[in-house]
Amino acid sequence: MQITKAEVVPIELKLAHPVQICCLPEIQAVTAVFLRLETRNGLNAWGCGVAHPDLTGEQPAEVLRACLACADLAPDLHPTLIEQSLARVRETVGEVAGALCAFDLALHDLLGLAASMPLYRLLGGYRNQIQTSATVPVSPLAESVERAEQRARSGFRMLKIKGGVNPDEDVQRVRAIHRALPSHTLRLDADGGYTVYQALEVARALRSELEMLEQPTPADDVDALRQVTRLSPVPVLADQSVRGPASALALASQHAASGLSVKVAGCGGLVNARQVDAIARAARLQTMVNCLIEPALSIAAGLSVALSSPNVSYCDLDGWLDLENDPTCPGFHLEDGWLVASDVPGLGCTVNLG
């Protein structure tokens, strides 16, 4: 089996509703760079990378250039020697996470196709479904409750409430959503917006309402995160502080969080994501498989990690739901807030680039 061709196509994916995240400008769209690998025997494998200067720190043009540069390498990449092939990609483009992710996903998809097995089974096959939260973005109180109720009507029983702009308002929003949906599991993601004092005040005020608190303090301040984790009455997960295996190891060694959140698209693909999960598992920390605003193809990769590992305790894979023009046709399906895998080989997705 030999790769004969690599096709690279960038698409701007628009959101049905603009998203507000703490400390960032309003997000109306992201760019996904899709990659198709074609083999001599007619297999077509798909990967993609996500680029947004505020979400990933990478410009779309940077990721596109890197993918195009690596496309010329495609015939020399070995479909079943993924680590070797990704080393070649890394030698060409360095640490451009979007490009690394695109080739990582496509090579894993091709491996699954060649083996005629769904990727989550090849990676471990611990389960075939997992419950996910749905995100409630930063918004005024009444709008937050309305968005939470909309998600609930769609079947979700777990909600991740975005915050970090105003701690007092975050407490009010969580309490209002809890009153409206008392049986729902609630998570609060501050996106690094709190001081240590603010984070502990919020955690103590909401100890009865929250399942966990995600990234309460700035991503680069590990000491602040460790202080909150030590004193918080609810579990604290590191998110933006986890940039890849090296940062995950540093956080784990310092016991700076109760768990580690990993984004496949953010850390450069499945190889790095699985290393983060392995570090968390060895350190007896919980893993959360998280996402960016990203197409369903990328969500399928995150789902493969979540389904393959017994250490994954939290799942937040809703990043494709509000995209208006995602060309992905996913193999997985959503049932009352549960993501359920299919038995389609590889990532299980098709992509229609029209």
Protein described:
The chain is an alpha/beta fold and 354 residues long. It folds into two domains: 3-117, 2-Layer Sandwich (Enolase-like, domain 1), CATH 3.30.390; 121-351, Enolase-like C-terminal domain (TIM Barrel). The chain is built from twelve helices and 16 strands. It has helices spanning 60-71, 82-93, 97-115, 119-122, 141-153, 167-180, 196-205, 222-231, 245-253, 264-267, 270-282, 296-308; strands at 3-19, 27-39, 44-51, 129-131, 134-136, 158-162, 185-189, 210-214, 236-238, 259-263, 286-290, 312-315, 328-329, 333-335, 338-340, 350-351. Strands 5-6-7-8-9-10-11-12 form an eight-stranded parallel sheet. Strands 1-2-3 form a three-stranded antiparallel sheet. Strands 4-15-14 form a three-stranded antiparallel sheet, covered by helices on one side. Helix 9 links the parallel strand 9 and strand 10.
Key attributes of the depicted protein:
single chain, 354 residues, alpha/beta, Enolase-like, domain 1, TIM Barrel, eight-stranded parallel β-sheet, three-stranded antiparallel β-sheet, 16 strands
